[in-house]
Amino acid sequence: MKTIAEQLADLKATREAHQKRMMEIAQKSIDENRSMNDAEAEEFETVEAEVKTLDADISRFSRLETIQKANATSAATAAQSAAQTTAQSATGGVQVKNTEKLAPGISFARMARCLALAHIEHRDPVQIAQRVYPGDDRVAQALIKAAVPAANTGNAGWASNLINEGGIAFADFVEYLRPRTLLGQVSDRLRPIPIDTPVLIQGSGGSAAWVAEGSAKPLTQWSYTRAKLAPLKVAAIAAITKETLMRASPAADGLLRDELTRAIGSTIDTTFIDPDAAAVSGESPASILNGVTPLTLSGGTTVADIRCDIATFLTEFADNNLSIAGAFWVMPERVAIALSLIANEIGAVAFPGITPNGGTFAGLPVFVSNFVPTVTEGSVVALVRGDEIFLADEGGIMVSMSDQASLIMDNAPNGSSVTPTAATMVSMWQTNSVAVLVERFLNFSRRRDESVAWGHVTWTACPTS
């Protein structure tokens, strides 16, 4: 049976051969002083896509190899560690550190769980951490730095102390959250600006003219507008039973992490890319597509129709004197799946660069999200010039929790402390539950309307009657 190391070696060898083939294809066109023909370009993109798949496999098997080596090392040193513990017991014993590498977000979940249990049991959260996660000094140390009395964990001042001193656990949660949101995937391609910092946006350019000898030279002017992104808040509350929190199982940690991630991620993605998401003053930003007129596309499903639609997207940028350099596609996962399966006139894959997870389309990167809407007119597909989108993101999160609160168990509550209305409430204390509130401050805005081009598509790999 093939070992992990052997499989890893085979994958690396295959990747090296693929890269060599890509170089050969490129070198042939270079030697003949021409661009790649259609067949060469198609083969190049197909091999390139296979290299990306191999890279993902290599990464996975490398992690497995690391785990395998770590397990072997642990087995080899277990007896030695036990002997050292026995030999030093007379001096108070030793504590073996837990060097387990946790999945992203689990440290945050463990920390939040310890604080919730401390609130339930009226005990020091550090003691809870040492009991539930013995040897995991990362959680215990983070709780020591942010230590507060257990009875006060629901107070308003708790969150600010925790966000400043919580350390690695909270940075870990943000690291887990970002790659799983569309905004997180593309954030490094956007133009970052500090929150509440004014920026100048040029509205029009200057002009010049040829001038004959002795004639007057023309004057010119251009316009600027001043803008800034205020901090806006996205928040989610997850209600968790105390029984779940008390179970000493990693599954409870993952449940807490995943629930918070889904709640925040869905709102961020929907607001960022849904054309119908308009700005609400002081509450939420507008989608980067909101207010931009959609393109008139072919409405067809053939390869020729899709190529025509691609041209419409790209020429929209060109007609506005905006380079496509730095642009990327955003589309629903269902559209990416269809494009990856569509065959051309000779039965080959028509768009070999794209995969269900993204890849490239017409030479530009693709980012997929199931929160990109599909409506009666079709699925939304957008071409976005990344450096023309402003992003203000504080990067951190604020956390509060309570088992005394009463909640409206609704994903779209109408409650307001300014204009209160009657509502059915559920007591966390009465239902033996804990409410965990997560808030994140960020804002985004397109620099100008020409920064994006979008439309509704009906692209499909299935035959139509």
What would you say this structure looks like, in words?
By secondary structure, the protein is of the alpha+beta class. Among the domains are: 1-61; 106-178, no CATH class; 303-390 and 448-457, 2-Layer Sandwich (hypothetical protein PF0899 fold). Helix content is 41%, strand content 19%. Strands 5, 6, 7, 8, 9, 10 and 15 form a seven-stranded mixed beta sheet that branches. It has a four-stranded mixed beta sheet with strand order 1-11-14-4. Strand 6 and strand 7 (358-361) form a beta hairpin. Helix 1 (4-31) packs antiparallel against helix 2. It starts with a helix and ends in an 8-residue tail after the last strand. Residues 85-96 and 145-166 have low confidence and may be disordered.
Class per helix and strand makeup? alpha+beta
CATH class of one domain: Alpha Beta
Q: Distance between termini? A: 49 Å
In percent, how helical is the residue content?
Answer: 40-55%
Which runs of at least 5 residues are low in confidence (pLDDT < 50)? 85-96, 145-166
The named CATH superfamily of one domain:
hypothetical protein PF0899 domain
**Shape verdict:** globular
The CATH architecture classification of one domain is 2-Layer Sandwich
Strand content: 15-25%
CATH third-level topology of one domain? hypothetical protein PF0899 fold
Query: Could you tell me the radius of gyration in angstroms?
Result: 28 Å
The total of beta strands comes to: 15
Biggest sheet: strands, sense, closure? Answer: 7 strands, mixed
On the 0-100 scale, what is the average pLDDT? 78
H/E series? HHHHHHHHEEEEHHHEHEEEEEEEEEE
Number of helical segments?
12
